[in-house]
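Question (not urgent): is this output format expected?
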Amino acid sequence: MSIWVPKRFWKEATVEREAQGFGVRLDGRGVKTPAKTALILPSRALAEAVAAEWDAQEEKIDPTTMPVTRAANAALDKVRAQFDEVAGLIAAYGETDLLCYRADAPQELADRQAEAWDPLLDWAEAALGEGRLADALAELQALPESGRAAMADWTETAQARLDAVAAAEALAASLNVN
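Got this back:
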């Protein structure tokens, strides 16, 4: 039994200005998403990238070679329908990731990030470098809940190491007493 694979049926993919943005057309016919939403994109550049992916298809359509199209489909079919929920998820992720990924511009934002986070990061790096794991663990309690949740695995491992060091020190102390 053979698997059905969609085949190329068009000669040319083009971009046309639409009332709501820029549409991709295959031989003049508008492209639709898997959920049958018109593929109307907010910028000509994005629509041209999608059209280029369609033009690049050979005899058989291979969606794995169309990342821009897949992202546009997901945005229109899934994100638009639950925009507030997706925006909330992205914002929650940002609470845990702003230490690692900083803005380069505008300079005012980059300066504010450096002012707010560099002292904490410098302190944590020094504490860990000097073996003050307990101090680093205590400092994590200052993070918002989402930040603590993101660090939970590391915190658990660090606490286990701290407990093991304490047990080893207690054992060493008891051996020295006798």
